[in-house]
Amino acid sequence: KVDYILVDAEKKIISKNKKAIVNIEKSAKNSIKKSEIFTYKGNDLTVQAADTFINDYFIKDIRGIGGKKILILGAGNIGFKLGLKMVENGGNVYLYRRSKKILNNIIRSINFIKPKGTEATAKKLNRIDNNLKDFDIIFGCTDGKSILTKNHVEKFKKDVVILDIGKGILQKNALKLA
User: Fold this and answer.
1) Residue 7 belongs to what H/E stretch?
2) Which of 65, 80, 86, 155 has the fewest Cβ atoms within 10 Å of its own Cβ atom?
3) d(CA 170, CA 9)
4) pLDDT in tens, 67-101
5) What pTM was computed for the model?
6) Residue 106's closest CA among 87, 128, 119?
7) 137: closest CA among 93, 172, 178?
8) Are 30 and 64 in contact (CB under 8 A)?
9) Which of 99, 98, 92, 95 is nearest to 65 (CA)?
10) 174 with 110: CB under 8 angstroms?
11) Which of 125, 126, 176, 124 is nearest to 154 (CA)?
């Protein structure tokens, strides 16, 4: 009944007992006979959209995002990929994640993977505190935990760009103030 069906190509474990890997793409290909299937990765589309938006936002800045101080709150799949893109674009990237062990691995990975000629680096942010006034761009990539409060927002630069691509980085009172 439809010409195209979009299917998430990522293979995920979604059962409660964590033993069943669900391959949505395979299931779709087995059941759909007439429609054309177009596969995509949702997280990668999100990262690309955020990258495109932020580069367009600073298009009139001669350096683009080069030299900007960027904070990524939530260094999971999306935050990691976005962090790499921002470093490759010349941003001074700081990442925050609850698990410091995983965060350290992510920082090392980004700095190892980035092109050799790239001067910008990824660094870790151990705590979200008063240094929020220093950031030009803040990306929210958390998985649903609203970690920025009204007190945090009061410390932002007036012209900070906040892009929430997670599931709600700002608490309600912080969102109203922002």
Assistant:
1) strand 4-8
2) 155
3) 30
4) 999 999 999 999 999 999 999 999 999 999 999 99
5) 0.88
6) 87
7) 93
8) no
9) 92
10) no
11) 176
